[in-house]
Amino acid sequence: MKIEAKNVKFFYGQDQVLKDISMSIKKNTVTALIGPSGCGKSTFLRLFNRMNDLIEGARLEGEILIDGVDIYNKNINVNELRKTIGMVFQKPNPFPKTIYENVAYGLKVNGVSDKNIIEESVEQSLKQAALWEEVKDKLKKSAFALSGGQQQRLCIARALAVKPSILLMDEPASALDPISSIKIEELIYQLKSSYTILIVTHNMQQASRTSDKTAFFYMGELVEFDDTRTLFTNPKKERTQNYITGRFG
Amino acid sequence: MINEKSQKSIRRQKALSERLQKISKSKFYLIQDEVFKYFGLFCTILGIAVLIVFLFNLFVTAGSRIDWGFLTNLPSRRAAKAGIYTAWVGTLWILVLTTIIALPIGIAAGVYLEEYNKKNRFSSLLEVNIANLAGVPSIVYGLLGLELFARFIGTGESLLTGALTLALLILPVIIVSTREALKTVPYTIREASYALGATKWQTIWNQVLPASLSGIFTGMILALSRAVGETAPLIVIGALAFVPFVPTSVFDSFTVLPIQIFNWVSRPQKEFSVNAAAAIIVLLSITFMMNGIAVYLRHRWQKKIKW
């Protein structure tokens, strides 16, 4: 198992937002996390690169193992951990710098200074993110000059540049138009062969198209976790059935 | 009984809708709107008009007094021969020194308060007091500078004492404006940086500071243009009105433009008040120029970064 969550409970101050969640995720698979707003799926996603550490008063119980190592162990260097786990956010958030610098940033903060290596990685990452052909002649231009969909693929390239093994995506296509959205989905499909991907989405079709497994969250609980096809065609719980057919949420 | 009540209510509602119709037809609210518009315009123009009258008056009085000699002459007992060379060089020295002292300290304090400080009682006490410091009268800073720098540390009546004192004076303003500039950098940028394995310091140094630099500099320049006009604290620490030489090191005694102006204004002869007016034009030009740079920076910054 690439990722394991064992009896995870999570609190913001007094509020418990995740209730005893256990889940195992295989290497090189895509797992979709679905559920209504406020169900805790984004919070759950952010446990794996410890982004929730940045919130004051947040507290975790239980264990999260990546490659068998408890990432909340005291000996874990958070920055090292985050380097091995890429994250893509809901709204494209490129740095106010050039396209090149955006992709190179992760390498630079991790101590890589060899120009040739950086240049090579920038090209490779942009190719992996299916953006290279569109930007290869304007690498020195500001990232803000790109369209929303291109910006999001740039953010994916930026995450890939530090060679993570896991990719966390928090509603990566929700701020994009349908065509850009499809491009991101195709990209996810291609990236699956080399990365373990977790994706939070509100879009049911997107979840069924892109993922191997789907987890349905409701009110901080993991209601159902199964193969995507099974979950969407033959859910075992009534709540899941109601949600995926659009009767609530 | 119930019927009666509901009938009453219906009548009341009818009366109300009639009244509302009348109001919407009445011109009262329209006039109110117009009146306020012109009153607001008047208030806006008032400040500018006073300034224009003042400037016009200045130029009429002293426009012809400003020439190369006025800028390059040393002070003199005779009004016609007196210049502001030592004064504007002193002002320039003070500007540069104050910037060197106040900028790093102010930015560091602002970054600490905004990025590192945890929210608790001590930190809110700290924040309230920094805001309070910005309101302390400048003469109090002068007395502090006199006691702490000039006497205790022993820098005397020097440029260094003056710059240190003015640096203290503008520090709260720089800290506050630095924090405001940092606040405009969206959290998502920090998140993106952390997610790539950057440390807090790397995130601040590589992303947050560059993105807020123009905002910080804008605040710095506005603070400095206030410092340029300060007179009281410098008089207190012993800046002299009559300095017959140009300072060549930070330990030299000095004068600045506002003190020179103050000195000339307090003389009985009319020629000296013309000199004062001319010096005011020079001083105003400096502050207008600095404000102009601040406006330019802010404008360029807004155009460049759209979050």
Helix content class of chain A: 25-40%
CATH superfamily of the largest domain in chain B: MetI-like
Strand content of chain A: 25-35%
Query: Quick one: biggest sheet of chain B?
Result: none
What would you say this structure looks like, in words?
The complex is a heterodimer of chains A (249) and B (307). In chain A, strands 6-7-8-3-9-10 form a six-stranded mixed beta sheet. A four-stranded antiparallel beta sheet of chain A has the order 2-1-4-5, with no helix packed on it. In chain A, 35% of the residues lie in helices and 26% in strands. Chain A is α/β, with parallel strands linked by helices and 249 residues long. Chain A is built from ten helices and ten strands. Chain A folds into two domains: 1-84 and 165-249, P-loop containing nucleotide triphosphate hydrolases (Rossmann fold, 3-Layer(aba) Sandwich); 96-163, no CATH class. Chain B folds into two domains: 2-63; 66-304, MetI-like fold (Orthogonal Bundle), CATH 1.10.3720. Chain B is mainly α and 307 residues long. Chain B starts with a helix and ends with a helix. Chain B contains twelve helices and no strands. The relative contact order of chain B is 0.12. At the A-B interface, helix 2, helix 3 and helix 6 of A face helix 8 and helix 9 of B.
